[in-house]
Amino acid sequence: MFVRLWMTTELITIGPEQSVVEAQHCMQDNRIRRIPVVDAEGSLVGIVSQRDILNFLPSILDGSSSGASSLAGSTKVGDIMACTPMCVNPLTPLETVAQLMRQHKIGGMPVVDDNGILVGIITESDIFSAFMEVLGAGGDGARIEMIIGKESRALYTVMDIFKRYDIFVQAITVHHDFGENKRLLTIRVRGEELDGMIDALRRSGAQINRIQIGTEPL
Amino acid sequence: MFVRLWMTTELITIGPEQSVVEAQHCMQDNRIRRIPVVDAEGSLVGIVSQRDILNFLPSILDGSSSGASSLAGSTKVGDIMACTPMCVNPLTPLETVAQLMRQHKIGGMPVVDDNGILVGIITESDIFSAFMEVLGAGGDGARIEMIIGKESRALYTVMDIFKRYDIFVQAITVHHDFGENKRLLTIRVRGEELDGMIDALRRSGAQINRIQIGTEPL
């Protein structure tokens, strides 16, 4: 799971010489909240957000609002953008991006290659999509939550049963902080012999928390 | 992975009879962007967001700002709150919550029990935490990304090797849309014989994309 797989590559960008008003219209027209700023060579030079524009405008509104809009028309994106935005690489792990976004309270980051060329943008929304995928959201088959031990073999016992019943694992995640010596295993599986597999799981001592068949209960 | 494990239970709430100004101060003091509104019995009756307050104020600012603040002081939360907020249950799967938040462009949802009593709140930030956990962010050991086939046995081949080398699986996720007949398996593992295990993986034909030891490269 890394950035390249989830980033948006259909990029909307703006030049540092364009006006703040143009940036504002561009955000409204495209329903986006941030625009990477690139120079003529496609190198990232900054990022301008809805918040940057809002932060810029109020100080101007102290006075007449017509003065504000004329200043917004003449002020350049380069003057109000964040010049050294936090960037990631196409191969940055997704958990690192999630961590950075949370830590710095930012909703999206430009993705640049080793030469500083802008190649994409990754947002909270992309990270949500990735998370839904690894949790198997909307998939068919059975969603099973079960509690297993913290010893390494607990997971192998489950996998051996899946293998025996020729189960296809669509999604699998482990949550470790579930309780003392307990892990929560969430899987979405498909197979001809789901009932037999579930019986075998129960016989093995796995504590099945919940089973949902199909997408209905989601 | 379900809501109860990740929701915030230290709740900040407000009553419908309290003023908009009180709600605004409460958000500022606690650095939050939404407050569930509960009645005297603790039942959820609505939610009020920073946006609701902002949407309320500007219409008032047409005129004198002192009129606006006096009206904000006398207007009750119950008059501007969203009365039928989207809610989830403590046992709702996290992928469903992520899906709802994305679909309806909301940043957080109240969590209510079967009696309509507010028991928590779950936000984008909580979902990010959960995602980081299942991806093994910040864990030690080795983070390995490898490409495996789409046939069900491909995963079992890998698990059998882990089992043989007594590897502890800290995190495991599968990404399916990686390419034709390819899945991307991301794991974080610990063990005494990581080198032997990696050699065995390579001999088995698994295509290892990237290995990171420890947390450094994150």
UniProtKB/TrEMBL annotation, chains A, B:
**Could you tell me the keywords of this UniProt record?**
CBS domain
InterPro entries reported in the protein's UniProt record: CBS_dom, CBS_dom_sf, Diverse_CBS-Domain
UniProt keyword DNA damage present: no
| Record bears the keyword Transmembrane | no
**Superkingdom of this protein's organism:** Bacteria
List the Gene3D superfamilies hit by this protein, alphabetically. CBS-domain
Where is the CBS domain positioned along the sequence?
A: 7-63, 81-138
What is this protein called in UniProt? Acetoin utilization protein AcuB
Source organism of the structure: Desulfopila aestuarii DSM 18488
